[in-house]
Amino acid sequence: MKPLTFYIVDVFAERQYAGNQLAVFRDAGGLSDKQMQRIAREMNFSETTFILSDDPRDDGYDVRIFTPVAEVPFAGHPTLGTAYVIRQELLGDPAANVTLNLKVGPIPVTSADRDVLWMKQNQPDFGATIDSEAVASILGLNESDIDARFAVQEVSTGLWFVIVPLTSLDATRRARTTKDKYHSLFETDRHAGILVFCPEAYSAHNDLNVRVFCPVYGIEEDPATGSGNGCLAGYLVKHRYFGSDAIDVRVEQGYEIGRPSLLRLRAGRQDDSIDVNVGGRVVMVAKGQWL
């Protein structure tokens, strides 16, 4: 294997050593599936991405995404972080708009004021609603901790998440999950994880607090989840959580595990569909050679 240039970035981060860590490898088209998976396991971040070529194809860059245990067709913070590396390091143009060719299809990433990158996600699919008592048991919570005004529901913009509305920040702090209980309810492998949220936040500047558990992908808790929060954005619009068909909110995640993160969610109903956009900042941490 030839040496590869790689980068480490923090995504949905307002500063270094916050947000969600991501390793990005350049010109990785010569690697086999097994080699990519082994590198991702060695990095042991929530995800590692591989830009297959420094040259675009069909106006986009071919990118593959791996967790420590499996390849995934889409994930949010790897999309933003990889687009940042392409803009900064491949193109040398921090203002460039970039499209990533992922397994779920092309995902465009655009820039905004104050270095915020935005990805337009696929239209959300809404799956089954799930019994709140069963979900409460998985999370180690009481059924009364789940906000009975809203459904517990499966949602996907590329990966499936179970969206769980909780009543308080105290409930989100107490939430836990175990692999045994998780797999006893979710017997298929389509679920990326469970996202719990509440309308209280650690910071007065934020609108929601979120936690995400992804044991199916070897991630006990994720510090910032762009894919899951895209599902949440669609859910908030569908269920009119804020009493409106459009949202523009700030979401905090990762506080409970020492990786404070900030995600921006914008979504709105357009006829029979919901447009979903997720934004955040990216901070470069390191770059080097993989031998």
* Unreliable runs: none
Rounded to the nearest angstrom, the distance between the terminal CA atoms is 8 Å
- Classification by helices and strands: alpha+beta
Strand content: 35-45%
* CATH fold topology of the largest domain: Diaminopimelate Epimerase, Chain A, domain 1
Let me know the largest β-sheet: 18 strands, mixed
Task: Summarize the amount of helix as a percent range.
Answer: 10-25%
**Domain unit count:** 2
* C-alpha geometry: globular
**Total number of β-strand segments?**
18
Say what oligomer this is.
single chain
* CATH architecture type of the largest domain: Roll
In the CATH scheme, the class of the largest domain would be Alpha Beta
Superfamily at the CATH H level of the largest domain?
Diaminopimelate Epimerase, Chain A, domain 1
Compute the average pLDDT. Answer: 94
Task: Describe this protein with a few key phrases.
globular; Diaminopimelate Epimerase, Chain A, domain 1; alpha+beta; 291 residues
Task: Show the helix and strand layout.
Elements (H helix, E strand, L loop, with lengths): L3 E8 L8 E6 L7 H11 L3 E5 L9 E6 L4 E2 L3 H15 L7 E5 L2 E7 L5 E5 L3 E5 L2 H8 L13 E4 L3 E6 L3 H6 L4 H7 L5 E8 L9 E7 L4 E4 L3 H13 L7 E8 L7 E10 L2 E8 L1 E9 L1
Parallel strand pairs: 2-3, 4-6, 11-12, 13-15
Antiparallel strand pairs: 1-2, 1-18, 3-4, 4-5, 6-7, 7-8, 8-17, 9-10, 10-11, 12-13, 13-14, 15-16, 16-17
Helix pairs in contact: 2-6
